[in-house]
Amino acid sequence: MDKITNDGRYTFKNVLLETGFEYDGDEVVKTKTALFCVEIADGKITVITPNDPALDAIDAKGWLMLPAFKDMHAHLDKMLYGLPWQAVSGQRRTVKDQIAYEQKMIPEWLKTSIERTEKLVNFLQSNGTHFIRSHFNIDPTSGFESLKHLEIALKNKERTVGAELVAFPQHGLFYTNTAPLLKEVVKMNIDFIGGVDPYSIDGSIEKPMELITQLAIDHHKGIDIHLHEAGETGVKTIEYLINKANENPVLRGKSFVSHAFALGHLSPLEAERMAARLAEAGVGIVSSVPFGNTIMPIPLLRKHGVEVLVGNDNIQDHWSTFGPGHMLRKAKLIASLYGYSSEWALSRTLGFATRYLLPLDDKGNQQWPKAGNEANLVFMEASCSAEVVARVSPVKSLVHKGNIVF
C-alpha cells in the first residue's frame, strides 16, 4: 500500500472505536463510539488522535476496530481441510478406533500437510484470527514429521500469524510407546506438553500424568491435556493436575485441561467445589463449547476466576465435520447457550474470542487500544462489540503485529 512508509509506519483514518457505555438507570442500553486516527509503527500502536478525514492515510471506512481473535485449541497438522470432502465415518466409534485409523492415514496426510496447513491458516485468518494454539501429533507413526511440517508452514506464514505449539500424544503415551518420543520433543522449540484420556487410553491416571507434569517442570513447559472422560476418572485426572500445580507453583497459569467434559456432568455443589479448586491452583480450561449431552459450566468457572480459553478444535477432520473455524461463531454459541443477550453481556462475551482483551472494561472505561499495544487488529462491519457477537459481523481486515494481512 502506498500509504505505508519504507520503515513500515502508517496511519488508519475513519477508525470506529468504542468509547463507553450509555445507561438507562443501571442498565447498559448502548455502546458509545467515535471515529479516530490510529498510527502504527514497529508492529505497535503509537498514536491515537481525533479523526481527520482529510488526512492522507489508509481509510478504515468507519469499520469497528477490535483486538484480533485468538484460537486457543486447533490441530493445524492433522485435518482433512484442503482434501476432497469427507464426512465423519460412523464405523469409528471409540478413540482407539480413531488411533488405528490415524496410524493408517498419517503417512498419506503428511504428503500434503504443509500446503494444507497454510490453507487452513488462511481460512482462520479470513475470520479474524491472528494467533493459534495448535496441538501436533507426536506418536510412533508421525515421529517428529508432524512438528517439522507444521514448523515449515508457520515459518512461511510468520509475518501474518502467531502460534504456540503443544506436543500431543494422540495415540497415548504407553499404549503406542510414545513416551520416549515425548521425552525428546520436549527439548525442542515447543510451548506445551499434552496428553489424552490417561485412564481410558493408557490404563492409568498416575503413570501418564506423572510423566507429563514432571517433563513440564523439568523443561519449563506448559501443560495442555485433552480429557474427554466424563466420569470419575475424568474428575480424578483434573484433581491430579490441580494437586501438581499446588505442589509446583511453576505450573500455575501454565496448566490447562482441554475439553474437561467431566465438569459438565457434576452436581451444582461438586461443580462449585471444582471451580474453586481450579481457580486456586491456577489451572485453566480450554473448551470448544460443546452442547447437547454435555454443557460445560463456563459461567460458573468464570465466576470463580478460572481462565476459560476457547478454540475451534476440529475443522473438517475425521473426528468432527462441523468445526466453523470462526471464533465469533464460538462466542455467539456461548452467548446463546448461557443467555448472554443484553448489550453489556454480549460485549463481555467477545472476550472469549480475544482472550479477554476488550475495548471497554466492565464499567465502560476505555482500556483498548492504547499507545504501546501490539497492533493485532481486526476491522468489523459493525457498530459495536455486542453487535459483532450477536450477528457474527463480517470481517473486513486483519492486522498482525502491524502487518496488514488483508
Automatic annotation (TrEMBL):
Database matches in InterPro entries: Amidohydro_3, Metal-dep_hydrolase_composite, Metal_Hydrolase, Metallo-hydrolase_Enzymes
UniProt key word Hydrolase: yes
Domain Amidohydrolase per the UniProt entry, residue ranges: 172-348
Pfam families reported for this sequence: Amidohydro_3
CDD domains in UniProt: Bact_CD
Entry's transmembrane regions: none
Keyword set, alphabetical order: Hydrolase
Record GO terms (molecular function): hydrolase activity, acting on carbon-nitrogen (but not peptide) bonds, in cyclic amidines
PANTHER family (alphabetical): BLL3847 PROTEIN (PTHR32027:SF9), CYTOSINE DEAMINASE (PTHR32027)
NCBIfam families: PRK06846.1
Protein name as annotated: Cytosine/adenosine deaminase-related metal-dependent hydrolase
Lineage: Bacteria, Pseudomonadati, Bacteroidota, Chitinophagia, Chitinophagales
